[in-house]
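[Automated response] Your request has been received and processed.

Submitted sequence:
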Amino acid sequence: MKDRVAIEVQFGKYTFVAHDLFVKHLGFYVSNIIDLGIEILPMKALESEMSSGVPYYERDLLNVIRQGRGVPAVPLILTGIEP
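Generated structure:
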């Protein structure tokens, strides 16, 4: 965290992305520690070159959109990277 922004780079298991989005970033935001959360994920093109169980941007973006407006209740930037 720096300047009230939390950045998480997630190349681990896909279950940790939900924890980051719905627990970590939200907890810091509700506690008035951050104003913005940033989650960096591999894109599908990069995920296919990694081991199994890795999250990828397109799936998690769809999961956030599916939750509806206001969930998670924290300003959030989801960013995907690829090779």
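Summary generated for your ticket: The longest strand covers residues 36-42. The mean pLDDT is 85.
If you did not submit this request, please reply to this message.
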